[in-house]
Amino acid sequence: MNLAKNKVSKHFKKYNQLANRVVEYALEHKFAVFFNSYDYGLNIIEEAGMKDFFLVSDSFLYKNCELLNTTEFARKMLKDEMFDTKKAFFRKYRIFNELLNIIFEYEVSEIEIYFTDDAENLSEFDVIQTTKENFLLDLYNAVEAAVPEYAGLFPTVKFCIKK
Questions:
Q1: What are the CA-CA distances from residue 150 to residues 27, 83, 87, 116, 157 (Å)?
Q2: Domain of life here (predicted)?
């Protein structure tokens, strides 16, 4: 029993350090994070068996955020202004690359990132296997492919990223 307690204590300490780093980064870059919050996306959280997770938002008041609104990018994509759009997209969402860098500094071997506006279960997600280095490009490609259907909202997609 003591061994299990030490293992949980060690896990908590490392997870708390990770959480502190993520919150510090979020505050510096003006976005919010919520750790192990079960009041948004509960069906997905339970179905995926998530234990340690966090939500990213543009607001500490609302967990369903506009951070992932790509309406302006969608307009430019439809007008075929791809080069500037891609650069701006990478600039806006580089926060995800930084979060991946922070997370992979800890004892984490794989990360799952779920993007959804209204999915209720895992079967609604397209699954994309990627790497930390290719994540933003794959995210951009997923958004670009979904522009005609989603009109500026992120597609319902799950990224699996191995260390």
A1: 29, 21, 21, 11, 12
A2: Bacteria
